[in-house]
Amino acid sequence: MKGEKSNKIGRNDPRPCGRLKPNGRPLKYKDCHLNMGSESLNTPPRRYFHPASGIVFGGDANSLSLYERNTRLIEGIVSIFSINSKKNWLEIKDGITRDHVKELYRLITWLWPYDTDIKTLYPKPENKLRSLYLGWMRPESVLDSVVRYSLYCDEILVMNPFLNPWTIVEEYNPLVHPEDYVADTVKWLFFILQISPWILSGHVILLPHPADFDYKFRLETWKLAEERMKKKTKAEQQELVDDPQFKKYSDADFKRMWLSTPTEAMRVKIKDRNPELTEQQVQEMLDYVHKLKKSDPLYASNPNEKGSFGMHISSLGENLETGLYIAQITGSYLYTDFNWRWKEILSTAQETKNDSLKDWSFITHGFQKLDFKFLNNTTPQFANRIREEGRLASMRNFLRKTWLDISGNQDQRSFEQMSLNFKDELIEEYGKAEVEWEKIDKNLLKWVTGEGGVGSILTAAMDWKLPALGFAIGAIGNLISAQYNRKEYKKNVPLSVFVDLNRKR
Fold this sequence. Notes:
The chain is an alpha/beta fold. It has a domain at 319-500. It has helices at 66-80, 89-94, 98-111, 139-149, 182-201, 215-230, 234-242, 244-259, 263-273, 279-295, 320-330, 339-346, 361-368, 380-388, 393-407, 412-451, 474-483, and strands at 47-50, 55-58, 130-133, 155-159, 204-207, 333-336, 371-376, 456-465, 496-500. A 7-stranded mixed β-sheet has the order 5-4-3-6-9-8-7. It has a two-stranded antiparallel sheet with strand order 1-2. Helix 1 (66-80) packs across helix 5 (182-201), helix 4 (139-149) runs parallel beside helix 5 and helix 13 runs parallel beside helix 16. It starts with 46 loop residues before the first strand and ends in a 5-residue tail after the last strand.
């Protein structure tokens, strides 16, 4: 009837669920629900039965975007673990129970059902300076790496650290045995809470593993990785054991396992090794051990749970094959600060003797002559604040332009002009960045003294490696071409970046 307000939702109206874009603006109906089918708002959601746990999951997360699933994860964590501004992290981790862990993995199971169409969720190649982190998958390592590198790129892709219960047998499934995952949950919960500002702003994107939804992909990439590892010499295999980061993290894991020894058992061990100690001295040592448990942010300190006696999950990160696959379909370049992984990446460089093909060595040599500054031991909150202030924006613009020139298809004339301009532009932007770092240093000092934070600025080498034909493994390229249209992915990974924390120029 004329004059009455229509209940029909227009194409440009805000979407009914009220979800927002990363920039805070509402998504339009045409960008979401309109493409789900005319009955999507009224059709009953699907139900999923998880055979290992016997849980029936009502609802369907398949209508959610990748960003929405990541924000739902954060929202769920805040709710499940009763996180608020009055609780500090030590209080939160002291209260983590197996029931909390089970609820967390119920959420993950709902967010990532087995029939997820991952190809529609992964970011598509676009004009962004986007990197894929390919280093140690440990909370402390990922946090440090993301904070350090965040001022030099637009987006960092990081693999979602939580296991997907749909892919795990009953004996080890966190829905069935949540008590075994208390320690692992403490570690990755700390990571998510720290990194959440970056996830919400869209600068960090958590990616689900493609193998969780494609068993054939899992088998093929495992087989490729096994064949590649068999070709490594004993000396090359020993390099991993001798790597400083490997030793650092192994020592940290051993310390937490030692701390998890029951108090009375530890009392007996102390007295057996040091019979001359008095009861008071032994108690003082036990009190000190208790303080260590409390102060370690990654130690599961709830005495009523299995904590460090549960599952110990340590990972080198995704294998190289999966990394190349993801980088090619998302238009990303590989980034690492792990020397052993860097050597793996370099082994896939596709060089050529054909002089007619582009030689990007002038870019590689340009970066190799300079030292770069990075934030160190600071929180993501501080790094996020620095970025919001626009620090190093000019350097990011220059790096983005260089990346787009590399990954695009320029004619010979534009390539030659780029090679002539690059050196002068790099030196100019490097000078601007040095001035910016002086301002960042002052902000860091104010933050440390005024807000009780910690942090420093370190100098390290940053290598940009650009082989003539990029980085690629033929079998991965064939796998991608069988799944995607050619316009949806890159034929190789043009660039890989290594931040060498142990070396200055």
